[in-house]
Amino acid sequence: MMRLAMILFSLISTTLMGTGIVIALVAGFTTLMPLLIAIAAGFALSIPATWVVTKAVLAA
């Protein structure tokens, strides 16, 4: 299970962090701090998202 979670985490975290950056840029935040906050938020959200997706994949 841990191996699958690590693989999924690498995909989910980059997706959510990239989405956060795009949202921040579209909202007009172009300085460093808002972008770092968006990256940190995407990283923080990717941990529970990975857990949920891993459980769902293993249950199927």
Q: What average pLDDT do the residues reach? A: 96
Structural domain tally? 1
Supply the number of helical segments.
2
Largest beta sheet, briefly? Answer: none
| Approximate helicity band | over 70%
Give the topology string: H per helix, E per strand. Answer: HH
Percent strand: under 5%
Q: What radius of gyration results from the CA coordinates?
A: 13 Å
Q: Termini, distance in Å?
A: 13 Å
Label the overall shape. elongated
Low-confidence stretches: none
Number of strands: 0
Structural class: mainly alpha
Transmembrane segments: 34-54
Protein name: CTP synthetase
Keywords: Membrane, Transmembrane, Transmembrane helix
Write the layout of secondary structure elements.
Blueprint (H helix, E strand, L loop, with lengths): L1 H25 L5 H28 L1
Brief sketch in words of this structure:
With 60 residues, this protein is mostly helical. The protein has helices at 2-26, 32-59.
Name the descriptors:
single chain, 60 residues, mainly alpha, 2 helices, membrane, transmembrane helix, CTP synthetase
What does this structure look like?
The protein has 60 residues and is mainly α. The chain has one domain (2-59). Helix content is 88%, strand content 0%. It contains 2 helices and no strands. α1 (2-26) runs antiparallel to α2. The longest helix is centred in the last third of the chain and has 28 residues, at 32-59. The chain is elongated and about 40 Å long.
